[in-house]
């Protein structure tokens, strides 16, 4: 089966290069349209009904997010492309959507296309794109939300609602303020990379905590962090000084 793709890119050289890569390394993908601004992109997507969209983040005076806001009843997967570490990359990661940095590497392209086709085949109906737009457009000072895929479906959780994370092999369990426990099939390291810049700290090989949810520290037996849900988390000796520094700096 051929999967239809639309490229939304305002630089002709970049769109031609991507078409060449797809033809050579992703033969299952057929490019059925190329657009270089919001209006032509929306029209092309509605006309061609592609399964895949390669979306440049910056489009002259607009963005790829403006395109997505105008496309109704989306039945496609999006792979973002950008020439630099764009401010929106964090929002894209939180929304569990793939992106490629330019110049595009063919192996990364193959991987992103394979995952996108698999997601489209599974017909996973969720609100990833809605979550992405909300994260990108969120008011100053408002939290990101994160996409968590559990055995029961996908949940979108504001970071402020997470108390702590616990690793169990390849799984991570999120402990929430409302008492819910959400188990996700991703290891803790992935969330460490995503959440460290947003007030979370990995104080032990198996635990990561929301620093705003730390009630106090107990020095006995090497040190424990007492969380607002009464959990007592052991602090790794290697992390103790950094944890104490963060505790002294935080604003509660």
From TrEMBL:
<feature type="domain" description="Response regulatory">
    <location>
        <begin position="4"/>
        <end position="117"/>
    </location>
</feature>
<dbReference type="InterPro" id="IPR007492">
    <property type="entry name" value="LytTR_DNA-bd_dom"/>
</dbReference>
<keyword id="KW-0597">Phosphoprotein</keyword>
<dbReference type="GO" id="GO:0003677">
    <property type="term" value="F:DNA binding"/>
</dbReference>
<dbReference type="InterPro" id="IPR051271">
    <property type="entry name" value="2C-system_Tx_regulators"/>
</dbReference>
<protein>
    <submittedName>
        <fullName>DNA-binding response regulator</fullName>
    </submittedName>
</protein>
<keyword id="KW-0238">DNA-binding</keyword>
<dbReference type="InterPro" id="IPR001789">
    <property type="entry name" value="Sig_transdc_resp-reg_receiver"/>
</dbReference>
<dbReference type="Pfam" id="PF04397">
    <property type="entry name" value="LytTR"/>
</dbReference>
<feature type="modified residue" description="4-aspartylphosphate">
    <location>
        <position position="56"/>
    </location>
</feature>
<dbReference type="GO" id="GO:0000156">
    <property type="term" value="F:phosphorelay response regulator activity"/>
</dbReference>
<dbReference type="InterPro" id="IPR011006">
    <property type="entry name" value="CheY-like_superfamily"/>
</dbReference>
<dbReference type="Pfam" id="PF00072">
    <property type="entry name" value="Response_reg"/>
</dbReference>
<feature type="domain" description="HTH LytTR-type">
    <location>
        <begin position="146"/>
        <end position="223"/>
    </location>
</feature>
């Amino acid at each position: 089966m051929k999967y239809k793709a639309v490229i939304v890119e305002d630089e002709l050289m970049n769109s031609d290069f991507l078409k060449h890569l797809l033809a050579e390394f992703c033969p299952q993908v057929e490019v059925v349209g190329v657009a270089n601004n919001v209006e032509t992109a929306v029209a092309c997507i509605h006309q061609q009904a592609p399964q895949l969209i390669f979306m440049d983040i910056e489009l002259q005076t607009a963005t790829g997010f403006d395109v997505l806001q105008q496309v109704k009843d989306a039945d496609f997967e999006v792979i973002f492309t950008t020439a630099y570490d764009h401010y929106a990359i964090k929002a894209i990661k939180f929304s569990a959507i793939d992106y490629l940095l330019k110049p595009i590497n063919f192996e990364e392209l193959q991987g992103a296309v394979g995952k996108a086709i698999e997601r489209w085949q599974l017909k996973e109906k969720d609100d990833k794109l809605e979550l992405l737009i909300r994260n990108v457009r969120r008011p100053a000072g408002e939290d990101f939300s994160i996409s968590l895929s559990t055995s029961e479906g996908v949940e979108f959780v504001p970071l402020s609602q997470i108390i702590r994370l616990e690793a169990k092999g390849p799984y991570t369990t999120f402990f929430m303020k409302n008492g819910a426990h959400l188990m996700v099939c991703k290891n803790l390291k992935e969330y460490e990379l995503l959440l460290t810049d947003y007030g979370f700290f990995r104080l032990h090989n198996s635990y990561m905590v929301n620093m705003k949810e730390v009630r106090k520290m107990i020095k006995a037996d090497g040190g424990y962090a007492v969380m607002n849900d009464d959990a007592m988390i052991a602090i790794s000796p290697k992390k103790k000084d950094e944890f104490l520094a963060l505790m002294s700096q935080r604003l509660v």
